[in-house]
Amino acid sequence: MPRACFQLQVRPDRIEEYKTRHAAVWPDMVRALHETGWHNYSLFLREDGLLIGYVETPDSIEAAQAAMARTEVNTRWQTEMAGFFTGIDGRAPDEGFLLLEEVFHLEDQLSPTDNDAADTTTYKK
Predict the structure, then answer these.
(1) Catalytic: which of 22, 34, 39, 105?
(2) Closest to 7 measured CA to CA, from 60, 77, 66, 86
(3) pLDDT above 90 (res 125)
């Protein structure tokens, strides 16, 4: 399954409100994300406002973004969230992602026998 990682910058004066909004995302937004192929989706926020997102999608991040763009709830959510970010140059936050290149993925480099061994081996410090 394709994976994507992206970054955005939350305005420092809006970090607490941003966290509050994401503690209770609208149920119809959560459903729309899931239904349009956003799986294992997480956001990580540094105290200076650096936001890192990670998502797995059945096709591509571009396909998942396009599917969300066709939903009414996404239009409302992006309008609500736009004021939280810097550096998106008037775009919706989900159009302002700075995509990061994946340079390592453990499972891609493990051989099938390594994967089997990793499932049964307990590592001790």
Answers:
(1) 22
(2) 86
(3) no
